[in-house]
Amino acid sequence: MLDQPTPVEMLDVLAAYIRDQLAPQLPAAAVFHARVAANAMDLVRRQLESGEALEAESLARLRSLLDEEGDAATLERSLSLRIRDGSINSSTPGLLDHLMASTLAKMSIDQPTYASYRRALDEQAKA
Fold first, then answer.
1. pTM to 2 decimal places
2. The 3-state secondary structure of the chain, one letter per residue
3. What is the pLDDT of residue 36?
4. pLDDT for position 127
C-alpha cells in the first residue's frame, strides 16, 4: 500500500483544487455544486481524522453512564429507551455531559465553523 499521499492529504488537495482552481472557471449555476463537493470532501477528511476516536469516547461514556457493555448502537438505543421511560433524566449524573460531548463531537465533524459550536468550545475552555 502506498504511504504517501495519505487519504486525508488527497482529500485536502482535491477540495482545495475544486475551490481554488475549478470553481472559478465554472458557470455560476455549477459553482454551488462544486462547493458542496469540496465541503463533502472536508467532512470525509474530518471523519477519517477524528471519527474513530470520537466514537470510542462516546462508547466509553455510554458504558459508564448505563453500566452496561455492548456496541454503540445497542447502548444508544438503551439510553433512548431509558430516557423515554424516565429511568434516566437530566438529574442523572453524566447524562447531560454525555449529550453535550456527543453533540459537540458530531458538530466537530459536520460543522466545525458553526458559530454555536465555536461558542460552546469557548465556554468549555473557560470552565
1. 0.84
2. CCCCCCHHHHHHHHHHHHHHHHHHHCCHHHHHHHHHHHHHHHHHHHHHHHHHHHHHHHHHHHHHHHCCCCCHHHHHHHHHHHHHHCCCCCCCCCHHHHHHHHHHHHHHHHCCCCHHHHHHHHHHHHC
3. 96
4. 81
